[in-house]
Amino acid sequence: MAARKQNSTYTSNEKYIVECDLTYAVNKIGGRWKILIISKLEKGKMRFGELKKEFPYITERMLTLQLRALEQDGLVKRTVYAEVPPRVEYELTEMAAAFGPIFQQLSEWGGKHRKSVN
Amino acid sequence: MAARKQNSTYTSNEKYIVECDLTYAVNKIGGRWKILIISKLEKGKMRFGELKKEFPYITERMLTLQLRALEQDGLVKRTVYAEVPPRVEYELTEMAAAFGPIFQQLSEWGGKHRKSVN
DNA sequence: TGGGGTACTAACAAAAGTGTAAGTAATGGC
DNA sequence: GCCATTACTTACACTTTTGTTAGTACCCCA
């Protein structure tokens, strides 16, 4: 999320890579927690604290960062209720819901092939 | 590929994450170049040098690393011919070929949604 | 003898990603 | 007044990923 140097090969490569629709899509769900978060949210709205409980070792910082990134990318909608203590709910956008069947297939792939290599 | 400390939260999380078939699958194709390499190889066998030319800014080191990882994961088959100068060919395994239709869909997702968010 | 071609490898450096630990605001209930 | 609750934020440290640069082996051919 931080500003990047604009002249590095790292950045050139990133630009090149994002031009491809496929890598563009994969980048959206990259990172350690995003796919897991999306999977959980497929079942419906969840509060920050509920999501946190789903992942035993995630830190609040990480969860916040990932949710913010997902929001930025238009995959998650964030609703804040003006209450105390605060209540914030997260839900998938249509765009993210479209990942459903794809995730299903990826998951099947994982299930089928994880045994074949040790 | 380097040895990791076995006691970090980073590692605990990784273990947890890999237990999920979905993230297991996504991890196989994670990283900057793997999907692109697989895409190219879908068209057929390629030599190291040919692959290199496909990606304007990839370094030899990166290409080697990614190919080795793919080989490790059983996604790519590497064939060395005993010639001078050396000739090495890479091709997808069945396991990797099974990604074909999934990549197709991800690519469509990318094409459809990249306009909606700037 | 020396250069060209191919597919690498090694040591190092920069960048990004992830985790740790502590602290914040707001308000209702005791 | 003080504490608990929730959803964060901040500053820092560590780990992994990616890139830079230089070098290797091998044999053929001029």
From TrEMBL, chains A, B:
UniProt domain HTH hxlR-type: residue ranges: 20-118
Lineage top rank: taxon: Bacteria
One Pfam family linked to the record: HxlR
Keywords of this entry: DNA-binding, Transcription, Transcription regulation
Protein name: HxlR family transcriptional regulator
